[in-house]
Amino acid sequence: MEETKEDKRLSQLKSSRGIVHKMYLYTQTNRRPPFEVLQDVENQVEIDFNFMCNLYGAAVIAAVGLGTNSPVMVTASMLISPLMGPILGSIFGFTVRKWDLMLRGFINEIWAVIHTIFGGFLMGLILSPLAAKGLNWPTDEMSGRGTLRNFVAGLFFALASGVILGVDVSAANGNALVGVAISASLLPPLVNTGMCLAFAAISSGLYPIGDKTDVSGVENDPTRIFHLVADNENHAVEGWPIEYQVDIMLQLEIAGWSFALYMMNYVVIFLVTWIVFKLKRYGPENNLAERHNSWKSASLINLYTAGSLANLGVKA
């Protein structure tokens, strides 16, 4: 019986003495043929009716979750989001030097980003007059994606997501996108960008404008001022007759950091996943060879099956 490539890799791994070489060979075990990965990636990279329905549906769910401070709804939108498909197409296209796939994934991702921000903007126009004052916008879910601290924390999530994406896509029994969609957090920052831009655009016609800790209207009482600043951000503490005020610059700052969070995720996931694919020895040279061998094996199986059926027909 002919030894398969997987058996050869395992035998090399067992006979290897150098720990570095052994670790390198270990990365190539349980590896899918490139043509299989390519087929899956090409199915996910295209923008069609189903893609747009999932995208806008996820944007609506994310917007409601952000606006109502519901982590459960935000997480649900990540699971529906199709944004990872075009990203994966551009990464794998770059890895195997399939430039048309890389360009298609890059362009489709740009369009998907535009549509996602637009969806968040529309939801911001709808929710701002209905929920901003009562739910004390920006909520924790909104402002949490608009700070430098969370941007730095997101870097580690993006590093882990790149590893998970590369391993799961290339593994024979991997689950490609579900877990990555949660950790990458690609959709909510874009929706948050659109919502904050919409809120900043129309808030002056809905609510008074001022700093979130503006105490100019409070009597000069240190106790009251401390209570306002310490316990109240952008909303009146119960029992205190302080107006709800909107800080437009704060909304624009959150929008900017949210978009930067998405861009950081994109760049880091691209680089880390590409490194994982290279460790798995995906590239233009073995892509064509393994595809040819797989097609050859499939043709032989089909011929053997057809011959067997013909023989059964003759005997019958």
Q: Mind sketching the topology for me?
A:
Blueprint: H1 5-15, H2 19-26, H3 34-45, H4 49-67, H5 71-80, H6 84-95, H7 99-131, H8 140-143, H9 148-170, H10 178-184, H11 187-202, H12 222-231, H13 248-279, H14 284-315
Helix pairs in contact: 1-2, 3-6, 4-5, 4-7, 4-11, 5-10, 6-7, 6-13, 7-11, 9-10, 9-13, 11-13
What would you say this structure looks like, in words?
This protein has helices at residues 5-15, 19-26, 34-45, 49-67, 71-80, 84-95, 99-131, 140-143, 148-170, 178-184, 187-202, 222-231, 248-279, 284-315. It has a domain at 32-209 and 246-283. The two termini are 32 Å apart. Helix 1 runs antiparallel to helix 2, helix 4 crosses helix 11 (187-202) and helix 7 (99-131) crosses helix 11 (187-202). The radius of gyration is 26 Å and the shape is elongated. By secondary structure, it is an all-alpha fold. The protein is 72% helix and 0% strand. The model is unreliable at 20-24, 213-218, 220-239 and 294-298 (pLDDT under 50). The chain has 14 helices and no strands.
